[in-house]
Write a structure and sequence with these properties.
globular, binds guanosine-5'-diphosphate, YcjX-like, alpha/beta, hydrolase, Rossmann fold, Nucleoside triphosphate hydrolase, three-stranded antiparallel β-sheet, hydrolase activity
Length: 465
Amino acid sequence: MNRFGSELNKLVNRSLDRHVRLAVTGLSRAGKTAFITSLVNQLMHVSTNPRLPLFSAVREGYLLGAKRVPQVDMHVPKFGYEEGMSALLTSPPAWPSPTRDVSQIRLALRYKPQKGPLKLLQDTATLYLDIVDYPGEWLLDLPLLDMDFVAWSRQQAQVLKGKREELAHDWLAEGEQFDPLAPADEALIERISARFTEYLFKCKAEGGLHWVQPGRFVLPGELAGAPVIQFFPMVWFDKVTEQQLAEAGEDTNAGMLKSRYRYYQQHVVKAFYKEHFAKFDRQIILVDCLQPLNTGPESFNDMRQALDQLMQSFRYGRSSLLKRLFSPRIDKVLFAATKADHVTPEQHPNLVSLLQQLVNEAWQTASFEGIQMDCLSLSSIQATEPGFVDYQGRQVPALRGHTLSGEAKTLFPGDVPRRLPSDEFWQSSEFDFLNFRPLVAQSDEPLPHIRMDKALEYLLGDKLQ
Ligand code: GDP
């Protein structure tokens, strides 16, 4: 009877163990790698972690511990937690290297159930937490599913203005002689695609622009060098009409571009949504609002447009593209303004208000059926310490830290606008921050952070009840 009882208990335990897939995304350099490294680190120190007062499971002592366990999806690369920690623990500390593809890490969280059937049946339960990291740029590709090659080419031709047109110069020049109706020339298409890809890279690196399509061209992951990411939009509409382009046969240059585009839609974009996105339960979207404030209005507005596009993936109205593909599961989305330690603490409410403004418009005009949303500001891994300095007889807030080259600095980076910045802000703002290296960390202590506990509470609090 005893043996039977204990077997039954094991069986019940197994069937009651729960599982949550938390997706972490954001445009490149938004702070995904730092966030996941810190999140894992905070949870691994959970039993002795004094830095998580806003996370009720820790505050009230019912989260007992966390450990790393092997991931189940063996085809997804592992998130480099150890590598990140060893960079942070070197002397002087360094930032973890960012990941460029989808990656994953699994933790088992042991807790004392607080309510429901688990509380009656078990003293302790396990929540398996899969944290999945993927580039936000991949979400910019969703609209491609609703556009054929001709419509996409038209749209790309329309955005070739201002800074983008300048950055596209070499690609546009290389394609000048391209005859879309001539027999397919793979080597030529490869060459012009390389210039197109360089243009997309330049948009990000030189232009501070985020809206780049197709997203995989700049973050190809395992697709690097594959023909599926060797095509470009046919933007030279003086050479060919839309109808000619639409009707061009398979064996022409345009035919090859069209078939690669279709392959990309089906096997890259759709596959990501079906294999990964469809399985996420919770989502955090990290946004670096401060870098575009440093760079200027074009970069800021472009980030806003990229965020609008990115949010389309969470619109699950009945006729939405994703609902037609599968039924998405995400029920909570958290937007987090990262690197809050770049500005002094009294600016944090402004940072949240700015982020709310950035996402609210899109949020309110769309149908996000059954999804809860919230915004906060955080610093995954603190690099500065706040304090005050004496300025003309007054105590003013300031930040102290070491620059990436090791120089000790104390500064006030400026005011964060509460609302979307006006022309006046851009003309008069002296907003300027420096990149600091992370604060010195100890291997037996959790990493210093700001409001990671608030993020944990929002994302996991109810799952640990
Ligand atoms: P990813 O491309 O989204 O994975 O971005 P990373 O996590 O690699 O972050 C990009 C850079 O942002 C890092 O190298 C740091 O310089 C900076 N960063 C990220 N998180 C923080 C933070 O919490 N505080 C500060 N000061 N800088 C951060």
